[in-house]
Amino acid sequence: MRTVFFNGPIWTGTAATPAWVAIEGSRIAALGEGQPPDGERFDLDGRCLLPGFQDAHVHPPIGGLALIRCELHEVPPSDYAETIANYAADNPDVPWILGGGWPMNAFDGGIARREFLDGIVPDRPVRLNSSEGHASWVNTKALEIAGIGATTPDPQDGRIERDLDGSPNGTLQEGAMGLVDRFAPADTVADVLHAIVAAQDYLVSLGITGWQDAWVRGVDHDAYRTLDADGRLIARVFGSLWWDRERGVEQLDELIATTKEGTPKYRPNGIKLMVDGVIENGTGAVCSPYVGTDDRGLTFIDAEALRTIVPRIMAAGIQPHFHAIGDCAIRSALDAVEAGNPSDVATVRPHIAHIHLIDPVDVPRFSSLGVSANAQALWACHDDTMVDLTIPRLGDERSQWQYPFRSLVDAGAHLAAGSDWSVSTADPFAQMAVAVTRATADAPQPFLPDQALTPSEALTAFTAGSAWVNHDDRRAGTIEAGKDADFVIASDNPITAPDLSRVRAEATFIGGRVMYQR
C-alpha cells in the first residue's frame, strides 16, 4: 500500500527539495515535484517532514531507571526534600532509595551533603546519582554500610568529598561512587527491561528513531536482546560495550564475543572508553592545571594504554566510542586513533563524545584522522554550571576553547549529535536551538557565538551525522528512495523557524508505521 506525504515543507538532508514523498510498506518508494501520485494521502497541513532523528550518545537504561525510581531530573532543588520524602513513603519496602538527577550547580561547589538526606530518610541507605552520572549523593546510612569514614582512602579513579576533619560529607566523585554502589541492590534484567521500554517511549515521542547506547553493561545487553526477541524494541540501537578500566586488554576477547550476539535491531558493535571525568568537578583531564591548583584532573585510561588498546579494537572491526572532556583526554584519544591502521579507522568510524575542551591545535586532527566529533550541544551556553563551576576552573583563555562546533565544521570534521540523556533533555530541537544560538531562555547571553552552527548544520548532525556514527546511514538519516521510512513530522520547519526551542515532534514514523502522535 502506498502512502503519500504532501502539503508541507520536506527537508530530506540532501540537495533534493521534493513536494511529496511516497512510501510503500516500510520503505521510501519515491520523491517528486508537482502533483502527488495516487495512494493514501497524508496531509502535512503545513508541517515539516524530516528524517527520523538519531542520538549518537544516550543512556536509555540509566534514564529509564531514573524515570521509575526517585526522579530528580527537572525538579527544582527547593522541591528535593518533598520529592525524596514522597518516594520513600510510597516505597516503604524498598531497602535502598535509589535514583538521581540533581545537577552539580544545585549545591554550592557541586557538593551535596548527607545531613540533608539524613533528615528525610535516616533509617534506609540513599544513593542519588548526579544528572551527569559523575557523582553520587549519599546519606550517612549508606556511608556506614559501605564502611566509608575519615580514614578511608580515596580510590585511584575518584574522590570522597570531606569536611575539614576528614569525615565524608555525602558526595562521592567518579570512582568513589563504586564504594557505595557495590552494596546497593544490583539492577536486574527485569529492572532494565522496564527501564528501556519507558525510555523508548520518551525518546520516540521526541522524534528519535535510532540511537547509540553509550554504556552497555551485561544486564543492558541481555535486556536489549530480550526486547528485540519479543518485539518490544521498535527503534534501532547501536550498543557501546563498557570497557572496564580496572582491567586491561585481556578483556577484549570477551567483548569481541559479545559483539557477535546482536539481533536485527540491536547491534553491540562499539566499545565505550571513558578517558576522564568532567570539568565541573575538576575530574576532566586537562593538560595544564586548573586555576589556582596543581591539579590536572583524573585520567581513567592513560595515553599509553589507549595507544595499545584502541588499534586492537579497531583491527577487530569494533568502533571506539570515547568519553573525553578535557583537552588532555581528547588529545590522548586522537593519538590513540592515530596509532591505528587508517583503513580500520575508515571502517569502524571512531568518535569522541562531549568535545568539551579542545586545544585549537587539535581541532584539525578530527578531520585528518577521520574521527567524528560527537557534540552534546545543550551544554554550550552560559548556564549556572558554566558560570559558577566551569569557567572559574578553566580561566579566561581556556574557556574560549569550549565546544568549538564552528571550528570543527570549518576544519572538515564530521559532526554527530547526542543528548547524553538523562544528563540533560533528549529533545533534539532544544539541543539544536543551543547549537544555533549558543544560548537558552534561562541563559540568554550567547556563549562564544562565533562557534554557532547554522540550522541546516545542526539538523544534519542529528540526522545523517548521527546515523553515520551509528553505522545506520544506509537505511536512515536522510529521506531518499530505498531507505526506511523513518520520519519526524515537526510542528514547524527547523530551517526557518524563528525559535527552534519551540518546535515540537508531532508524529514519529518508524518503518512507515506511526509509533508516536502528539
Description of the molecule:
By secondary structure, this protein is an alpha/beta fold. It folds into 3 domains: 2-56 and 503-517, Urease, subunit C, domain 1 (Roll), CATH 2.30.40; 58-181, Diaminopimelate Epimerase, Chain A, domain 1 (Roll); 189-502, Alpha-Beta Barrel (TIM Barrel), CATH 3.20.20. The chain has 16 helices and 22 strands. The protein has helices at 60-68, 80-90, 114-118, 140-146, 178-181, 189-205, 218-229, 252-259, 303-315, 327-338, 342-348, 363-369, 384-399, 405-410, 428-437, 455-469; strands at residues 2-6, 20-24, 27-32, 40-43, 48-51, 53-58, 70-71, 97-102, 126-130, 135-138, 158-162, 168-174, 208-216, 236-242, 266-274, 319-323, 351-353, 372-375, 415-417, 487-490, 505-510, 513-517. The strands form 4 sheets. An 8-stranded parallel beta sheet has the order 6-13-14-15-16-17-18-19. The chain has a 6-stranded mixed beta sheet with strand order 7-8-9-10-12-11, sandwiched between helices. Strand 7 (70-71), helix 2 and strand 8 form a beta-alpha-beta unit. Helix 15 (428-437) crosses helix 16 (455-469). It is globular. It starts with a strand and ends with a strand. The mean pLDDT is 96.
